[in-house]
Structure formats: structure tokens, C-alpha cells
Design goal:
single chain; about 190 residues; mainly beta; four-stranded antiparallel sheet; disordered C terminus
């Protein structure tokens, strides 16, 4: 049964059957790669609620395609996002999907390269570094982060601000009720 738009003045959906995408769009590797490059690697994606990272040293990881990102709250209370990859040999820095860091540092489990929660390389245990090695040239790769109405968004694009910014329109009704109300700035708690 097809809806009749005249019967439901508020209905703005389909009024006739439309063909769907071909099956190849759902299962072929090339289609998946194109979706990643055209949408997922360029868009603002919600990864968690700000309240999920309420305490300093709290972290969450998120996987988008082949990219893994760690979102954390540093010791000053600022939210930050980085690729969850050591600059030395590419090892995964945070092994769990969420939790609280044991120290105010991210340490690679492979060769113990150590980064501050701001992403700066602060310690390398090796004594045999190449001449002229400068730790300042090897910070973690940063990921753009934005908080909107208590929701944490990340964007993997090189220049995410050139693309559409996170939503700025009033939220749908579901976000205006109960625990989904906008958080007070910096608190992560409902108003």
C-alpha cells in the first residue's frame, strides 16, 4: 500500500517504489573503497558522547575503514584525537576499545616510544638513533575533533574545515529530551 501525500500532510517520504542500489554496491571491495574515500574519510563522524570521556585520561578508540583513532581527555581536560599508531613501527598504542590510561603518556608496546597526551614524542629508549634525529619531527598524527551538543565528532580529512562542519542546526526532538540534552560547556553533564 502506497501512502497518499494528501492524507498525511506531514509525510515527506517516498510516494512510489524506487529501485535500490545494485547488490555489487554492498559486497564488492571497489564499492567499499569508494564509499570510504568519498564519505567516511571526509565526513564528520560521531564517535562517542562527551560524557563518555568525562575524566582526565579516559579514552575511546574508533575504527573507520582501515584507520583506527584514539580519542582521549588529556590531563588538562582537553579532548584530543590521534591515529592510534606509533610513528616508529606502526604498532597500535591503545589495545582496548575504551578505558582509562594508567599514566599521562601513551607508550608503544613494541619499542616503548612514548608520547604525551598532546601527541608529542617525549621519550625514545634507544641509544642508537641516527645523527640529527629530532623528536619534534615525530608527533602522533592528529585527527580533527569537534564537540557539538555533548557529542564528539572526528574527521579524517586533511582539511576538514574546508568541508562541511559538524551540525549547527537545532537538534531533532530526540536530542532535546531526557539525558540527551545539551551538555553544559566543559562539564559533560546534562543541564
Amino acid at each position: 500500500m502506497q501512502p497518499n501525500p494528501s492524507e498525511h500532510s506531514r509525510y515527506n517520504g517516498l510516494t512510489s517504489l524506487e529501485p535500490t542500489l545494485p547488490a555489487s554496491a554492498y559486497r564488492e571491495a571497489d564499492a567499499y573503497r569508494l564509499d570510504l574515500e568519498a564519505i567516511w574519510y571526509r565526513s564528520w563522524l560521531m564517535v562517542c558522547r562527551e560524557a563518555d570521556l568525562a575524566e582526565p585520561l579516559a579514552f575511546r578508540t574508533a575504527r573507520i575503514g582501515s584507520q583506527e583513532v584514539v580519542v582521549l581527555r588529556d590531563e588538562t581536560g582537553s579532548l584530543r584525537a590521534f591515529h592510534n599508531t606509533c610513528r616508529h613501527r606502526g604498532s597500535q598504542l591503545c589495545q582496548e576499545s575504551e578505558g582509562r590510561l594508567k599514566a599521562r603518556l601513551l607508550t608503544c608496546p613494541y619499542h616503548a616510544w612514548t608520547y604525551s597526551l598532546r601527541g608529542d614524542l617525549v621519550r625514545i629508549p634507544s641509544k642508537s638513533l641516527p645523527e640529527g634525529f629530532n623528536k619534534d619531527n615525530y608527533p602522533l598524527y592528529r585527527v580533527a575533533l569537534s564537540v557539538w551538543r555533548g557529542l564528539v565528532f572526528i574527521n579524517l580529512a586533511e582539511d576538514p574545515m574546508a568541508r562541511r562542519k559538524p551540525p549547527s542546526t537545532p537538534p531533532p526532538a530526540i536530542f532535546r529530551i531526557g539525558r540527551w540534552r545539551r551538555s553544559s560547556p566543559g562539564t559533560g553533564s546534562p543541564r
